[in-house]
Amino acid sequence: MDNINFKLPKMYEKFLKEIRESEGFSVGDTGVILYKEEDLPERNLTYEVFEYEPDFFMIGQDGDMAFFIKKDSDDTIYKNDLGALGSCEMEEVSKDIYKFIEYVKRHYNML
Questions:
Q1: What is the pLDDT along the chain (111 residues), one digit of tens a residue?
Q2: What is the DSSP string of 7-41?
């Protein structure tokens, strides 16, 4: 992506290419939405992620629960409540975006 200043994890970058023509990616009927590439900067600005969690980048959400990758890092997906950014540690959810999608489909009630 031209409008961010860090390297995206390889699996996540591959995922973004796969959903490029869509309006984002809905994980089944769970309510979890993963943003399309064009929406990522705006979503991060709206929720002030750069201010409260400067090492992370928001990639999707379900209501107040948001999902993140760590900048210039591996493919691990994290979660945090949007109201707790900067005050609660990120919680690891999955090792990559594809495992995250499968996890949400199987265990969404546990998020």
A1: 556 678 899 999 999 999 888 778 989 889 999 999 999 999 999 999 999 999 999 999 999 999 999 999 999 999 999 999 999 999 999 999 999 999 999 887 554
A2: PPPHHHHHHHHHTTTSS-EE-TTS--EE--GGGHH
Of residues 10, 37, 6, 13, the one with CA closest to residue 23: 37
What pTM does this model have?
A: 0.90
Residues 32-43 as b/e (b if ≥16 CB within 10 A, e otherwise) read bbbbebebbeeb
| Tokens matching residue 4 | 């961010």
Structural domains in the chain, sorted by start: 25-110 (3.40.1580.10)
DSSP 54: T
